[in-house]
TrEMBL record:
Organism from which the protein derives: Ichthyenterobacterium magnum
Names of required cofactors: Fe cation
Family that this chain belongs to: Belongs to the pirin family.
Domain Quercetin 2,3-dioxygenase C-terminal cupin as annotated: residue spans: 156-235
Name this protein carries in UniProt: Pirin family protein
Cofactor note: Binds 1 Fe cation per subunit.
Residues in Pirin N-terminal domain copies: 11-120
Keywords: Iron, Metal-binding
UniProt: Fe cation binding residues: 58, 60, 102, 104
InterPro entries given in the database record: Pirin, Pirin_N_dom, Quercetinase_C, RmlC-like_jellyroll, RmlC_Cupin_sf
Amino acid sequence: MKTILHKSNTRGFANHGWLKSHHTFSFASYQNAKRMNFGALRVLNDDVVQPKMGFGTHPHQNMEIISIPLQGALSHKDSMGNKRAIEVGEIQVMSAGTGLTHSEFNDSKTDEVNFLQLWIFPEKLNIEPNYNQRLFPLEGKKNQLQTVVAPKDKLEDNALPINQQAYIYRTNLDSETSVNLKVKLQQNGFYVFVVEGEIQIDNTSLGKRDALGVYETENIQIKANQSSEVIIIEVPMN
């Protein structure tokens, strides 16, 4: 088993006033040759958007884009005709494929929006763009794994489809509880991101916004040292 530790305070940071963004991997003005990706996972941004502010219309192409709200609601509009808010508990996925444009705004007059945005390299290029969004019940991740994203040809439970052999799981663990994960494909690795709390993987302790990449292993165990919220991204490493 091989691991790579990314502590929260080693992430890139940009403060644009209306937007505060922590970058796990190289993004925009944050460039780090040692932090380009973890396998097919290219971007993991932790964004806080101020009230009545947001990202104007901009393009994407040949990327799988996953948005996970942690606080507040983010209004989304795109060139495929989708126009709706993404709220806490929901997951949004877009397969950008041949190309699309979209905008994301915080419509609240008083409250910040905090959301994670992940980019995953696609399995196939230039597919027809696709959009999906779904609310996942809180009880489905209580002390167990909840699969929220899966390959479009291997969907399981109520997961949303993406164009890659990748999976995203969520779990809320009580203190002293644990979950076990086994890779779906031998070439896959796990990227474990702690939203809140403190967990243990083997001899490594992870706190809030810390992350650990684990690969060249068939399975891992995640134990909560205190009540914790965790997101696990399983991606091909080649």
